[in-house]
Write a structure and sequence with these properties.
Layout lengths: L37 H19 L10 H24 L4 H30 L5 H12 L3 H10 L14 H27 L4 H26 L12 H13 L7 H21 L11 H13 L7 H6 L2 H28 L4 H27 L2 H4 L2 H26 L65 E5 L6 E6 L1 H4 L2 H11 L2 E6 L19 H17 L3 E5 L10 H20 L3 E5 L9 H7 L12 H5 L4 H10 L2 E5 L4 E2 L3 E8 L1 H4 L10 E2 L2 E2 L1 E3 L2 E2 L1 H6 L1 H10 L5
Length: 723
Amino acid sequence: MSVTVHRPLPGPAASRDLPRGRPLPDRPAVRRGWDFRADIEGLRAVAVLSVMVYHVAPGLLPGGFVGVDIFFVISGFLITSHLASEHVRTGKISLPRFYARRALRLIPAATVTLVGTAVAVVLFVPRAFWAQFGGDLIASAFYGVNWTLAHQSVDYLAEDNAVSPVQHFWSLAVEEQYYLIWPVLMLAAAFLAGQFKQTKRRGYVAMAVLVTVASAGWAMFAFQQQNPAAYFVTTTRLWELAAGSLVAIIYPLLVRSASGKAVTTLVGLAAILASVWLIRELQWPSPWAFLPIAGTALVLGAGGGISTTWAERVLGIAPLVWIGGLSYSLYLWHWPVVVVAEQVLGKTGVLQGVAIFITSFLLAWLTRLLVENPMRFHPRLRGGARNGIRVGLVGALLSAAAGGALMLAGSTAAGERAVRAPGAAVLRTPISDTPVDDLGWIGEPMTPLPSEAPEDVPSHHGDDCMPPAHSADVRICTYGDRRADRTIAMIGDSKIMQWQPAIERIAEQRHYKLILITKNSCAFADAPASLDGRTAYPACDRWRGPAFAAIKRHKPEVVFTGQGATGAFPLNASSQRRLTDGLAHMYARLRTAGFTTVILGDNRSPERSLSLCLQMKTGHPPEWCTFTRQEAASASSFPLQSVAVAESGGTRVNADGELAPGKDKDLVLVDMMDAFCPPQLERCPPVIGNVLIYRQGRHITATYIGTLTKRLDHALDEAGIFD
């Protein structure tokens, strides 16, 4: 499988229904002049085309992902227009009727897409991903997938998850959750306004402003904290829909002179186009999100009425109006088509991109023609709220059933475990003397199974030892011989913490208490931190000082540390030098504090996920998923560690216990590379001694680390660590 991972998909507002019937001039109308606004359909077309281009060829339109913000504002505007219009006409808002219409409008087309996607997964996607995709289908069926994706975004164990063909439902889930709560908030606002002898409109305005300000403030706080879940969660997105709601509420009060309309709509359209063209992929929503939101609000608020501006005429041309009317079904289908196409064809080129567009438009047109409109306008279904709600429930259950069947079919058969799994125990000393026939895959099946590798993790993952990415909290977990008077410590990111199984056993055998202080993707070095080589990581920078102070309080005899390759910011040659110097400085601080310091060399491994490779190559020997030492070294921070230790006068010891003494015998770099890639092999294997080595890209399975306990203990003995 070859899947290009783009930023998770945004989606359009699904509500094209516009209020019918011209309101009386003396009533607080929601819309003036025309019952149908072609410019809104054109806005939808701009947004959905931006999103499609971004996901097929992101380099052509780097800001296309902001289409989600445009859609949210439109959706809030239209929904509030309906609700306010109903309240004006009837004096009330019927919640059952509102929810029934939303169900009829959204769920039939969504059901067809979800069930069709499940069928496509069975036909074209490796079985290894069925369980994951089935779970996503179920979450999408009940419009809760945004919270599932938010959890995965902060879950380190989810980094090897394949790109889901239904991840685009996250934005629809946000919209549906807004639809669920906003009518209730409007009713509450109207009631409170009456209690304070204010008009309903003032109550609506106050509620919309409150939601907008509170949610926008929370979104900007999450941006400052670099919380990756902020992209998906409803609380950081409500303000975008509420901004559209606010425009709808004050719409009848806005004065629209011809010159004012012309300037305002032009500025709004320019802001939208600048957003999709100029904004680069960032932690989102960021302060830049105000640009497309404000632009959309200006076009919505200034548009309509008797006169038509140049910007409205551009947005109202027939092709854009047609695409805008198709936008919901087009949005539903295009991402599954992208994912399946990349499964079948590999990374998309020009011809594949054109084929994706054509296929998406064809499926969208058929869905609108055969499902969306017939269900939406069926007289019997529209005749009562119960019918619409029943249709919605049946559709959701059908989609969930398809997801459940996919999960069941993709589940791993119980009891499939290796009988013999010695792992690193097959390695002789020296490792180069190990017969090649004893290495690699020596039984069927291996352990852990490739599908279970992401969960083969050290115990600290389940012990709440790691603070969230946006937090600088220091959490301390205790292992080993907890009654012991002597202490050793582990501090750093996940690349040192993957060694917990071996170091914990050594601590138990030697009667040491082991304390663990960790933060994911946070190099324990005196250098500016980065999450991914591009984005600053201030929470890591704030974490190091308190973490160092915590180490000093516990006074360990030995401190084990290490880190991965993406700690430098930004990721370039000069920052690599800064990270090397930062490591050397941190080693010096640890030594000055009196701690024997052991650096476990970052394991060299490929950029790709070998557990995924093995799942996709079912039936083939693991040799299909080998890699060269040169490929492995490019993704490791070991060269930086090696230079920092050498410049600090430290000692080195390898996996065979061979020592290269330095001036400082209490600063030791442990290089276990040969235990992962024996030198007698031409290529590095994914399996040794029937144990799968790699669990998540560059991380090692806890099972294989456990089999390295004796070898690591021997290397530490040779270096005199516990003398």
